[in-house]
Amino acid sequence: MVEMPAVDWRVTRIARRRSTVTRAQVETVTARALGLFGLVFGAQTVPVALAQADALLPGAEAALMAVLYGAIVALAVATVTKVGVRTACLAFAVLYAVALVVWPFLVDVPAALGGSAPWLYYLCTVATTAAVVAVRPIWAAVYTVVVPAIYGVVRFLPAGGDAGPLLAVLDAMYSVVLGVVVLVIVTMLRQAAESVDSAQEAALERYDVAARLHANEIERVKVDALVHDSVLTTLLSAAAATTPDQEQLAARMARDAVQRLDEAGVTGPRALDRVGLPVLVRRLRAALTTFNTPFTVRVVNAGGVELPVEAMEALYAAAVQAMVNSLQHADEPGLSTRRELRIRGVRAGGCVIEVADNGRGFDPAQVPAERLGLRVSIEERMANAGGAAQVDSRIGHGTTVTIAWPQRAGGGA
């Protein structure tokens, strides 16, 4: 058990490195950049929109500006609050496409445009980027091609400034190129973040397996030493005993060997070397400082509770693994995830830790057997230490990992 702190240190170091780039962070940065540039582009089009108001039907310009600019503001607010980002982006993308389609029907005096491009043109890149954020890449690619094509048709019409075929095609192609560049960049960032997530998760799993093998090897060496130093020595002494004194010595050695075997065979942590629960709380708080994402920490009844060292190490390692799993898998793009770490002392010698989030959730029954984060790093680790672990999760309703020591402290978790 001396090696456990090294395992914990590696876990927190891996969590610290993975926090540099995640899929959720890519989505957040992309969405907020979209919200900012949407406001900037929208503000730039206001003078042009006002200048073209005379070309449209009475009241049409005001309604169109209210709808599109209102959608841009809603999009910016959503990206800042991280609430309903995809919905806001999808709404703006759809509204913009509808505005392009109805534009020819809203223009009453085409000559008033003076051959200039409709002001909707300057928001085309904002709309294609919103589609990239809102929908899957294949549908975003379709939107990136179709919507500029619709604009090219509108631009060719008298209601779109009566541009020639060449100018209309060039304007449409320019919008397509900008949209494709944004789509490629965002897609590459997403794939890179997912690759980093997968690689670091695989590294964490491989290290956990190596740590377990190392611990098993240490345990095997201890057992071999016990058998050699106690059992074999006792048997040799008994076989060589020829006098009553030698027989009594062999008997005492046999009793001592049986006692040592009984102690070695006891499952779970020994009742020696106990440490106060506040020490575990401080270690978990220190681990949280290595994460970029905050956890709300709640501690109840920690005073006066003492735990064996082995139990504390198992609780710490399993809790850190549960927090790392939450950071890796709970975030859903466009939504804000709340996370809590709850630590509760049970009487004078027990502890229950809950790692909870309101993220995307999952079906525990569908977790592949080769995934070791839950089965080995949490459930088996606590079982080997005489504790228990329970995972409660539903898709769309978050996840709660309950870790208890001893097993009865968690109500048979």
Task: Explain how this protein is built.
There is one protein chain. The protein is α+β, with helices and mostly antiparallel strands. It folds into 3 domains: 23-197; 198-265; 271-410, Heat Shock Protein 90. It has 11 helices and 7 strands. It has helices at 4-18, 23-51, 60-81, 85-106, 124-134, 137-156, 165-240, 244-265, 277-288, 309-329, 372-384; strands at 274-276, 296-300, 306-308, 339-346, 350-357, 388-393, 399-405. A 5-stranded mixed β-sheet has the order 2-4-5-7-6, covered by helices on one side. A two-stranded antiparallel sheet has the order 1-3. A hairpin with a 5-residue loop joins strand 6 and strand 7. Helix 2 (23-51) runs antiparallel to helix 7 (165-240) and helix 6 runs antiparallel to helix 7 (165-240). It is elongated and about 125 Å long. Residues 1-19 and 267-271 have low confidence and may be disordered.
